[in-house]
């Protein structure tokens, strides 16, 4: 058995984590058309309950925040019941799980939205490139609308309502998605926030306003110890531009540091070393993701981050897709499976719950029970 800092326990507020490995949020499109998670989602996350903490795929807080077809939501009683089956399965397997709340903002297309409308973000700035819409087709992008002030206020309230729904569904907490080009990130970035009002780019205070309002309102709704935030300073995904992210994110971290949040989840960037710059300013738990836009994070890379003091926990994405028992494999020094990219965004069990675990005693492969793929027609 391997002795590794990644495999040591950690206290996260009211939660006792058996290790410092976090399953990163990853969209997998295993929801019905109305956004209810499919039954296979409970199997998927329960298989990975050995993670110190699981963070779910991005979940839209309300229909205006839906960015893609068959992404899950947390808006309706049906959504809450669907997620309750997931959290019950994870807790029965000994795990801990946060819901990531993800508002798409400008991202999306009328043919991929339940409302059938044009998405809205801070400003009317196009996302270049063809987009996935209903039934796996692709369509040309549409120009998003600029949100009204009333819509901005409603989005803040929708985040808080979804956080309360997450508590009703049995989640241990929520992570607000302020990264990877989604709505909170859109208010922070140079090219997606061209507003001239109190939420606009005229001052640093204005640029930070939406992020601070969302975090504060959600913390008020469910408690700061159950509220977390993910940020990806300088991340260029989906044509985001942040010419000088340092001053923006230093100011944001300074504003949020004293709230007592569960954790800050940071992705590092080759052009802006977020962990080096922001760790000294954050006095709570910090989760590091060092694989964003890079090679898959290895055990050694995770250990190096912990040893440097730049983080308390390390999130793993792709490695958890094909290795449901990733902590066990690290402990045994066992080889890792590679994931099957052809099934990342399909709707059944293939490439989702059919990756076999190892025996923690012998290291032998343990057969997975036969979980039939869910036919597309069965969910509308």
From TrEMBL:
Transmembrane segments: none annotated. Residues 6-336 form the NADH:flavin oxidoreductase/NADH oxidase N-terminal domain. It comes from the Bacteria. This is Alkene reductase.
